[in-house]
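Pasting as-is:
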Amino acid sequence: MNSKLKECNVEYLFRAILSLQTMEECYNFFDDLCTVPELKALSQRLLVAKMLSEHKVYSDIVQATGASTATISRVNRSLNYGADGYSVVFERLDKEDGRI
């Protein structure tokens, strides 16, 4: 884990997220926790990462998500050199959706 992230407050946040049990609880929690732009930015990055993992080109990602090329590049760097967090999530979601 990134040592910059590992601190008591971040761990408490992650524990809180892991305690959520339904989609409605997630909506309620994140509605309280984040502003609309913050939540949209997080969800945009996740979609960008998914599209990059499916080998979509930047121009298609820009058109589909509205993300800047700088954001796409940052997400791509995380996919290639990060902690594999995106990969774990995508694999699990694909399993849930019956794609694996």
